[in-house]
Design a protein that fits this description.
7 helices, 9 strands, 33% strand, elongated
Length: 269
């Protein structure tokens, strides 16, 4: 949803010869959040409300230097971003290329919780979940017509699992400094390019469900097709959705895909 305003925190810089040692530092969130608040009317309120959701679900405070990303599924942990491109390394991630060893050598789960709770949404967040629901329903194949039958006056959203996890920065640096793998060398080149930052820590939800009433009664043929729970594919990495008819023309739709809500970024050089 957001292209982060790195220009507010990164001065103009020029390429310098690559150094053998890799160093890193956290991207201070305050200037970025201030800039986003100034440019997006709802940013501060949305941040506050999602922060409350995170802390109530996790029973812990939100991690420092968190930047609110919205319902973001274009980037995830290990993604490299800059002020113009959300996901510079879309074709290659360190999580893929480190597969020869245990992935948890460089990845650590900080906390997770099964929230399964209704979200108290302001209008802007309600719209963001609604837009995601409609976008996914439009990709539901034979059931895409349901995207035009959602009664927005009777709709609720719930989140399931929320997870906070991080890349082990020292392990990542060690991996990149000793590697001879061409993919990892390319990842290192992108990572250490001035102006690029790496999403090191993420607060993520594993999808959501929506319950709503249909605007009109289904035809007998449509009702037969929706007898029982039906599933549809949403991507090539296990993302999927399901639809289940409930009593009184109500429907439950489950969207099973990852959304990064908060991120902590680091620059490497």
């Amino acid at each position: 949803m957001l292209l982060l305003v790195w220009a507010m925190v990164y001065p103009s810089c020029h390429s310098t010869p690559a150094k053998k040692a890799i160093h890193y530092e956290v991207l201070k969130a305050a200037p970025v959040n201030d800039s986003l608040s100034a440019h997006r009317a709802n940013y501060k309120d949305d941040f506050k409300q999602w922060k409350a959701v995170y802390e109530q679900c996790m029973h812990d405070t939100l991690f420092p230097n968190a930047i609110y990303l919205g319902l973001q599924n274009n980037i995830g942990i290990g993604s490299i971003s800059n002020q113009t491109v959300q996901n510079v390394n879309r074709e290659i991630t360190v999580l893929d290329t480190s597969g020869k060893s245990d992935i948890f050598n460089i990845l650590a789960v900080i906390n997770s919780a099964n929230c399964f709770s209704k979200i108290n949404l302001n209008n802007n967040l309600q719209d963001s979940f609604y837009n995601e629901l409609i976008r996914n329903l439009k990709n539901a194949g034979d059931y895409s017509y349901l995207s035009g039958l959602v009664d927005t006056s009777r709709i609720t959203f719930n989140i399931g699992t929320l997870i906070d996890y991080t890349l082990r920065k020292d392990s990542l640096v060690s991996l990149l400094q000793r590697t001879t793998d061409s993919s990892l060398l390319y990842f290192r080149q992108i990572l250490t390019t001035p102006g690029n930052v790496l999403l090191v820590r993420a607060g993520m939800i594993f999808g959501f469900d929506a319950q709503f009433r249909l605007k009109k009664k289904l035809s007998p043929e449509e009702a037969v097709k929706l007898k029982g729970e039906v599933f549809f594919k949403l991507g090539d990495h296990g993302e999927k959705g399901s639809i289940q008819m409930l009593p009184d023309q109500n429907v439950k739709v489950v969207i099973s895909r990852n959304y990064t809500v908060f991120g902590e970024f680091y620059s490497f050089r």
